[in-house]
Design a protein that fits this description.
2 domains, Glutaconate Coenzyme A-transferase, 15 helices, eight-stranded parallel sheet, six-stranded mixed sheet, acetate CoA-transferase activity
Length: 443
Amino acid sequence: MGASAGGGPRHITAEQAAALVKPGDWVDYGASFTQPDAFDRALAARKGELSDIWLRNCLSLKPRAVLEADPDGEVFRCFNWHFSGYDRKKHDAGICHYIPVHLGEIPHYYRRNIDRVDVAVLKAAPPDEDGCFNLGPNSLWHRAVIERAKTVVIEVSSQIPPARGTDNRIPASEVDYVIEGDAGTTPELPNAQPTDVDRAVARLIAEEIEEDACLQVGIGGMPNAVCALLLEGGARRFGIHTEMLNDGLVELYRAGRVDGSKKAVDPGLITYTFALGTRVLYDTVRDNPDFLCHAVDFTNDPFVIARNARAVAINNTTQIDLQGQAASESDGHRHISGTGGQAQFVRGAYASEGGKSFICLASTYERKGVRKSRIALNLTPGNVVTTPRSDMMYVVTEYGIANLKGRSVAERAQAIIGLAHPDFREDLARQAREAGLLPRYWR
């Protein structure tokens, strides 16, 4: 739509901005802490006068007022690119629905497949000296949202830490309206404390990571434990090219362990598309020239990832079968998180010269007081395959590490059984033979 007549965006109240939304509209909230709050509350207050409002968002870090005001989803229908814990609860309640996606493809979806963004509302830092609104360390697909939107609203908040980037500064000429957002602090994601199992898995992975490896680390205790062990492991230096920038990676940087001089992509810089963690992380990236925030279709492109030699991808899964399929985002038909960038980084890391991909998991979990194996003959019915067996490289549990590349089905089954908890190995081997995965003659 462009800025209002007179050369700049018009300053209005949150209530006036919410009044722009009409029945049947698609409203886009962006992701993580770029999701609006003042606008969200004002739109929720209009529940009684609206109908059929379709909302896109991702990784909610706090309750969404529109969903709290409409617990039955009669007015506000939410569609989500990747679940947080809050989003998962709303999915369980039937009012938040997942959109299957490789996270790195979302900008293309907006440009090629999504017909309507009637109103886009994104939280950003106040204008800089050039008059641009900075989305902070959170580029993702927001540039594509703004290109597609009929009306663009920026909710200004001083809590957003401005960050250096290629697509996270929004010129005033691309904004229609500006509203004042909340004061306060940016939502934080506390660090999960690593367990003994996390540390055991991390030790196996850390031994495989070489000098000048270029790191991608996912969310959770295991990947953070890997970063902690890399801090202890001598004077090695690393590069970083990741989707999510977390506290573990930032601690490596703060300890002087990130050099990045051997990277082919953004040499000497830390490349990422969004940051999520504690205040220390946000303070570190604030206007820091060592960090560069790109759009997600750049950071997650397997061909871009593979340009860096010794790319290393470290990601979690929740279940793996005996052929090497990893289910990392659902529990049967119950959706938990999302595909995210896992499959893209698995492929990019393997295609890199000297690159390695690690999918890690604890061998067991407990449900209602009963211990169960995360390694199974077959995935739980309804479980979504996040990383196919043909893409799997290293699988790691607290009992060992196995490289599945080049291995037959029988060799894979045998190797994966060896990673299971000892209490489950005999039964898994029996099931594998009965299913024909292990031949009768196989020792």
